[in-house]
Amino acid sequence: MIRLLLSVLAVILAVPAIHAAELRGHGGPVRGLAVSPDGASALSGSFDSTGIRWALATSSAEQVLRFHDGAVNAAILLTDGRAVTGGEDGRIAIWTADHTRPERILEGHQGPIVALSLSADGQFLGSAAWDGTARIWPLAGETPARILEGHTGNVNGIAFLQSGEVATIGYDATLRIWPKTGPARVQTLPTPLNALAVVPGADMLAIGGADGRLRLVRADGTIEAEAEISPTPVIAVASDGRRIAASGLRGAIAILAAEDLTPERTLVGPGLPVWSLAFVPGTDQLLTGGNDAVIRRWNASTGASLGSGIAGGPSDPLAEYAGDPGASVYRACVACHTLQPGEGVRAGPTLHGIMGRPIASLPDYDYSAAFANHDIIWTPETVARLFEIGPHAYTPGTKMPEQTINRAVDRKALVEFLERATR
């Protein structure tokens, strides 16, 4: 028995710990969501015009990506660790982990970019946009993008197939399969198409429609199976090869078998609608990006919310402030900022000793140049003003996601909490 217990313990210790907590930091709905192949990092894009790179083991923000003029609708992580964001402004930004500005900017689309995809060999990036086109961008060198034209409306999704061909879907109700050269094969489906994901290992496509149905489609356009997901349009789809997750504009999240779309369970929680979905490789975890700016974790096999009960738990950095109304307001900031000395910096500087401190004055944090030029001393009044009118208006050039606190009583509670907790 002892030998058995030791064996079980060894297995448990060999499994990497994953901190089951919500990811909070965005100031608007989470529109784009991706996870690295090793399951260690996530990248999100939001209507607040920022992307955030997250460390999933600690549920902390590692990097805030501010560049786009408008919503960040698509996000993806490259195999070499670089991050890619696609925006409402029609631009694609490629980021390294240690820079505050994009390493490379891809321009050419004339409408909002809404989807990104990476080829299996990591050499090509695909983009879909509301200018009626998709593009294939070589990631090495300066070779011009290949422009895929043919859709007669918004192109809402793009994906690389195992064969190397590219699939696109559009509001014109067509699925188009593009070979490496030549025209696309076109299959018309019964409804405008909103969301697309490849089912890994099967070379099948999971396609969400405006009629609230999910369709499993072969590369030749044959519909293998379909299931009703929601009475409203399906707006997000993801697959880990074993299962498919799909969400509707007003409904909950459906989990279905990837083989034949047999329903397995439904995930119901706050933050509807869910705009983005991503499975964590090597686990049963599903990340969902909600309308309330929160990224939640779920066990896709059991339907359990992995964020339940985390607040106030032993790993909660705000556990000692349970019941403090200001701490509740501050919880949206905890992913990017620390409170105590020795905790270091995250995506944002530590707030320890903030009251009375000149703006952009910490020596161990890389502030944006525009932010460092402001002449502000942090006081209860200036902190309150920051969240009354928003960081973009009060400190132009900041990397901070747009966050406003509309109620004066909540701003007062936050300021009083910071005065106590950051001394």
Automatic annotation (TrEMBL):
Pfam families, per the entry: WD40
Residues annotated as signal peptide: 1-20
Alphabetical UniProt keywords: Heme, Iron, Metal-binding, Repeat, Signal, WD repeat
Intervals holding WD repeats: 23-64, 106-137, 148-178, 267-308
GO MF: electron transfer activity; heme binding; metal ion binding
Domain named Cytochrome c: residues: 321-422
Entries under SMART domains matching the protein: WD40
The protein's name: Cytochrome c
Protein species of origin: Aurantimonas endophytica
